[in-house]
Design brief:
homodimer; TIM Barrel; about 450 residues; Urease, subunit C, domain 1
């Protein structure tokens, strides 16, 4: 659509983090054609539909850089349990029974929750990813979808990934992208990791491009024992090469990945909680993109990422909620606030993670991580018309001294007024425009009632 | 009013944490006269106004056990700064200029924000507390107000406290109570601490009662250097007794307080981050009430309280937001979630702080801390009609497996549907009934614009 947003406070998230009071954004079709002060632009553009953003902040929408979207179905299914029991007794058994229709339904709920809370783009790893791509597409959100690959499902996984790329990469007006997603070092053996790295390169050559690359999305260093579990899983391999690689000694998960020659700037590495100094240097030297998931890391007791150290090394860090089963929310406002709080507290330094840095992580850093920053992540002339409009009128949102502080420490997902993606309103005046919210919720409620007739299984 | 809430899921927070599906609560005037299953009670009570709570949870409202309500005016005024600079360059100078009218206005905003987010009661310490009491009273909330006492304002503080108790303790239908509030060990010298302890006892004898006691509300062990600062502040005292007390060696802040003979079960001790083992034993032995303020402790980089240890010692722990200037919110849903997350993560144990325990902290434990548990903190026959009704219909609130998990990890302050205090609707269907919200917000916006003409002082 062709329109003009005026009177708002624009947080551009450009390289200077410029804030424009009395700001104006001019959109033609799916592109931002101008950004500036309304007083300067109002006589330059005529005949555009005008949206008054008085008492509103306009930012780039948030990008949720690590999640498993359809796990909304399992929100609150099992909490406060030891990790092994949580996984083996609760999560894995129920995951095995999920159907493609379930994945579609769960993702539909995830995109509704995401859009209403100001998220334009999900980097999501799961299975039956055709269905996740479908649900994200239909809602008009952006998504990077990846089929999660395990050694024990090798043959199928590679062809599923190949088909996913062929069908979906850079599809739906460029809103959907695909990544190659090895689950982790302890579930994917070294030979298969190399194979998936090679597969990604081949797919990138054929289907990717400079501005729409195919990333490698992987869980890394989430818990402290990943190399031990890796050895336990693969040291009885029939391949002597695998055995050799598995049994060598490594100074951290990234040292291991580096020795496999799979580390590069196309990697989106979720978690990065337990890192050696060597790991951190490798992440920096290879320009690996890190996704911080503080809520999940705390809830599952994985630990606290050495985030200030990563930032000191100029590593690109973005934010994710992780799956709604280990959070139990897809709320990026919450993740933003907890990121800003946590590292101050555990490092006893109140100047760490200042508000503007955390907003960068949720916007432009995330776009860079996904190789999408030529189009999204900031409000700049020539970029795609992705805009998040946040209402400043609620009691908890006043007074306003500093916009970045307000977003990080005071504003909430319920303050999201409107969300535009690719020039189209997905949420307008707090109403989801592209998906039937009530119908989706009814279906989820029915799904749980049918699947778990004795509902309160965890009480 | 005489009414009946039916069809809801009741989290009673009684001694068994009973959950009643298909629950019913019967209210007469300001009292809960019955609680049970609707199927059992519906034929017992007739002619009551009925409120259908289908797809809603009913809990005791949250009690914010440590805050400085009127500091809403300074929400986001100064963030991400070193503590000393924050206090001396930003907070103290502006606090000195606040007038009684400002305190009234800030508290009005605080009670609106609190009520809309499900908080019925504030334990608040500041100055011009007549004005805080007035604003809380007018809105129909409960409050424990205390005038913050410092050595350098000795004479005035004691008489202000005395007058506050006389005028407000157990006033406004018992909704307002008063506490005696020494600021901290490093701002109140040992002689004055003893004096304030004595004052509390005398006031309690004259104006307090078993069910409406006058508490001692104090900041304790918020930072690690409180005893050092205490010595710096008071070692040049003219009194040889004060000098002797100041210069002795202590094994923690509570060891110090104990040696002053001021520790007892009437103390509400905010923070308790930096505790020695001796401190923890003393807190348990003297039945001191602890208020955990995780958001403020993280944001100001005070550190992480040894909460699991306190709970292992069966110490009564409640929750607070602290002042909205060091948070920057009065949102107890947020504090609840962060409490549940933080201690799992830093202690690498996902079973710590299970959901139900954290809901207890925000309700019945807090009522106990304030000596108010004979009237509030749980939904039980004979207690005051304080009810929080939470909507379960939003996308982020489905599916529902376990009610306690949902409150702690998924629900948000924006899900608050209605809040009843003392049998009166303060919030009904998301609308504040007792204070003019728009007018208050306008006044706050104008206040900031007048006081800080160059608004974006921190950007």
């Amino acid at each position: 659509m062709n329109c003009m947003f005026f009177n708002g406070i624009i947080l551009t998230m450009n390289s200077k983090n410029s804030v424009i009071q009395d700001g104006c954004i001019v959109v033609e079709d799916d592109i931002i054609i101008d950004v500036g002060k309304y007083s300067e632009l109002k006589n330059k553009y005529h005949g555009y539909e005008k949206f008054d953003c008085k008492n509103k902040i306009i930012t780039p929408p948030f990008i949720n850089c690590h999640t498993h979207a359809s796990m909304t179905l399992l929100r609150g299914y099992a909490d406060d349990l030891p990790l092994f029991e949580w996984l083996t007794k609760w999560i894995f058994p129920v995951e095995k029974t999920l159907t493609p229709d379930d994945i579609y339904l769960g993702t539909k709920l995830a995109v509704i929750e995401s859009a209403l809370s100001g998220v334009s783009c999900l980097n999501t790893m799961y299975y039956f990813m055709d269905m996740e791509a479908e649900a994200i597409s239909q809602a008009g959100l952006r998504g990077v979808v990846g089929h999660v690959c395990f050694s024990n499902n090798k043959k199928q996984d590679s062809s599923l990934t190949f088909n996913l790329v062929k069908k979906w990469h850079n599809s739906n007006n460029g809103l959907i992208r695909v990544s190659v997603d090895p689950h982790s070092v302890y579930t994917v053996d070294p030979a298969y990791l190399k194979e998936l790295h090679q597969l990604r390169n081949e797919l990138n050559d054929k289907y990717g491009s400079q501005n729409a690359p195919i990333r490698w999305h992987i869980h890394t260093a989430e818990t402290s024992d990943e190399l031990i579990k890796m050895r336990e899983s693969f040291n009885s391999s029939e391949s002597s090469e695998v055995k050799r690689l598995v049994c060598e000694s490594y100074d951290g998960v990234f040292d291991y990945l580096n020795r496999l020659n799979v580390l590069d700037d196309q990697i989106v590495a979720a978690h990065c909680v337990h890192l050696t100094d060597k790991d951190i240097n490798l992440i920096r030297d290879k320009s690996v993109n890190v996704v911080h998931n503080p809520v999940s890391n705390l809830k599952l007791a994985s630990g606290v990422s050495p985030l200030p150290k990563l930032l000191n090394h100029n590593i690109n860090v973005s934010l994710g909620t992780d799956g709604p089963c280990s959070n139990n929310s897809l709320d990026m406002f919450e993740t933003i606030k907890i990121t800003a709080l946590l590292h101050k507290g555990v490092n006893l330094n109140p100047t760490l993670l200042p508000a503007v840095e955390v907003v960068k992580m949720a916007t432009i850093n995330a776009a860079k991580a996904l190789g999408w920053d030529s189009e999204i992540g900031s409000i700049e002339k020539g970029k795609k018309a992705d805009l998040l409009i946040i209402d400043l009128s609620r009691p908890h949102a006043v007074p306003l001294y500093n916009e970045f502080s307000q977003i990080v420490y005071a504003l909430k997902s319920s303050d999201v007024d409107s969300l535009m993606i690719n020039g189209r309103f997905i949420v307008e005046n707090k109403v989801m425009k592209t998906v039937n919210v009530e119908e989706t919720i009814s279906k989820v409620v029915k799904w749980v009632a049918d699947k778990f007739p004795d509902r309160s299984i965890n009480s």
